[in-house]
Amino acid sequence: MGPLEGLAYGFSIALLPSNLFACFIGVLVGTIVGVLPGIGPVGAMALLLPSTFAMHPATALIMLAGIYYGAMYGGSTTSILVNVPGEAGSVVTLLDGYQMTKNGRAGAALTIAAVGSFFAGTVGVVGIMLAAGWLADVAIRFGPPEYFAITLGGILLLSRLSGGSILNAFVMVALGLALGTVGMDSISALRRFTFGSVQLAQGIELVPVIMGVYGVAEVLLLAEEGIAKTQIASVKLRQLLPTPEEWRRSTMPVARGSVVGFLTGLVPGPAAVLSTFISYTVEKRMSKTPEKFGTGMIEGVAGPEAANNGATAGAMVPLLSLGIPFSPATAILLGALVVHGLQPGPLMISQRPEVFWGFVASMYIGNLMLLILNLPLVGVFVTVLRLPQHVLATLVLLLCLVGAFSLSNSFLDLWVLAIFGVFGYALRKLRVDPSPMVVALVLGPMMEKTLRQALFLTRGSVVDLVARPLSATILILAAAALFGPPLVRLLRGRRIAMPIVP
Amino acid sequence: MLARAVPLVLLVDAGVYLTLALRLPFGAAARPGAGFYPVIVAVFALVVALAGTASAFRGVPGAAAEAVELDAASRRRVVISVVALVAFCLVLPWVGYPAAAFAFVTVLLRYLGGRWTTALLTGALSAAGSYGLFAMLLDVPLPRGLW
Question: Largest CB tally within 10 Å, which of A72, A94, A341, A475?
């Protein structure tokens, strides 16, 4: 099935009433969680995962992905109007977005952010159509050594890009990998680290861990503040239209941001966040008046807002074509597909075209829904912020608890949620990113299985394992990304230091 | 204190994990056993946890940043939230979901700063609403308690 034929088939799936409804609920919930500072898209996706168990896999994927990209739209609203980013991908937007509000141009900033996000989302979907199919064709030839190299390389790269110190990232990776070994060994069926618990033999569920470190931890941070009221700038419908000059200045930043975002999404790491920083830097460098950035430049809103939406689309490519999630959000999407007995990977596009193409087409529709929802209804979404934070915190916590229990009706999941909630809170206080742990928890079992299979194949030769052309290329690239920057810094330091040394 | 406590706990965990991993069948490189990969992970965990702990105690850049001190009221609210979370997990099998959810929301809202009337009303509505959604609509067998 070619891309256009596939897309037409996808629209016939995505336009089914049940899928349209799921898409609408997904983008609506996504916009609301994007607006609310307490709970991010990952927590919301984890929370709603149990409600998708009775759905068709395509419907489940459509709804959960809608939350993910919907949150990128919603997050910009609070950044621009309240100077509070609804989620991490909108932090950069507040630099110029809130200044535009102070300058009386809030409506223009919101419109450009929404239109830019829509454009980037659409570009991203075209990117998925082209890249995922091509990558899947290539990946059919991959064996265990290549998959091992991809998972190992992905984890190494994620450690480099997750922000903060690499040592902390490695500690998180080690913890995630160790947690991934709990439960029954997939090859010998031996129980490992279960301490006699039957429930632990199933392994540590990903979703309660995610709900804990993203949902409960955020709620504990909200609880610190107690009763807090938010000051919200009001925007009237007629103020939403940007001037022709603002449209003109936003065109290229949106186009550049879309491409930067999509490409960043392909790389392991917090793509939605990282892409906004890259886009902002690019726009500042290309500007004739870089000193004005931070004072309400429309380019500083247009580029990053397009970039974070492009990144959410880009992040789908490794998931759909290789079956490997490189971020917590795509890990949940993988979890949703696995629950339905689907294993994303190179064969999914040909074997389950209704899931792949239905999902791709739904992203077009979802982006259109978001554009329609976000502009006229911006005032409605912002009123969500008037909900007192202590009420919000309590209700989100209750939803996390009941959501975690409903995954497999297990009290163990409740305890996992509570323990990782407190642990996630401690990590936030120490400014340590938990994403490497979450991704390592997902990729760990995959890495172990492929490592052991590859060693069987190569009769225990590690050299044969890493010397295959593709494995070697991936590992060299990952090593270059990991050790390149410190090495360059070291060499530059020496070069500078040389004249001083006699 | 938190910046030193967390890596120290992780270091102890890594040591325990290595001890347990070494008890599993290791196999050989050509036929790796169930303990092969956990031992590799454990060694990696021990090395990075050691480096993390050393950095935290020496206070070098790269160690986890020291948490910003909270005032007494904020600390109290966080502790109450954690206690409520743990209490919910403990009592749920015995008192059932509706009662546990009602008590959880009411007590937590009250101590986070809400009025008793608001807390009681929100507690009743949220317990009933979430029970209706999950137990009745989504067929989740939420615990009903000993009665």
Answer: A72
Interatomic CA distance for residues B131 and A137, integer angstroms: 47
d(CA A118, CA A368): 7
CA distances for B28 relative to A186, A187, A459, angstroms: 17, 15, 10
Q: Which amino acid is at A439?
A: V
Residues of A in contact with B70 (CB under 8 A): 224
Structure token digits, residue A360 = 């791709």
Residue of A nearest to B8 (CA): A171
C-alpha Rg value of chain A to the nearest Å: 23
The ranges assigned to domains in chain B are 2-58, 72-137
Chain A residue closest in CA terms to B81: A220
Cβ–Cβ below 8 Å for B48 and A192: no
Contacts of B3 in chain A (CB under 8 A): 430
Tell me the shortest Cα–Cα distance from A355 to chain B, in angstroms: 23
Instruction: For residues A9 and A378, give the distance between their C-alpha atoms in angstroms, rounded to a whole number.
Output: 33
Name A446's bridge partners: none
Nearest to B52 among A167, A187, A447 (CB): A167
Q: How many Cβ atoms from other residues are within 10 Å of residue A231's Cβ?
A: 9
Tell me how far the alpha carbon of residue A130 is from its chain's centroid: 20
Token pair belonging to A359: 């999902």
Q: Over pLDDT 70: what percentage of chain A?
A: 92
A-B contacts at Cβ under 8 angstroms: 193
List pLDDT tens digits, range B64-98: 555 566 788 888 889 999 999 999 999 999 999 99
Q: Which chain A residue has its CA at the smallest distance from B51's CA?
A: A167
Can you tell me the ipTM of this complex? 0.90
Q: Report the pLDDT value the prediction gives residue A161, as an integer from 0 to 100.
A: 67
Backbone angles phi, psi at A164, to 5 degrees: 75, -170
Q: Do A174 and B73 touch (CB under 8 A)?
A: no
- The residue ranges of every structural domain in chain A are 3-489
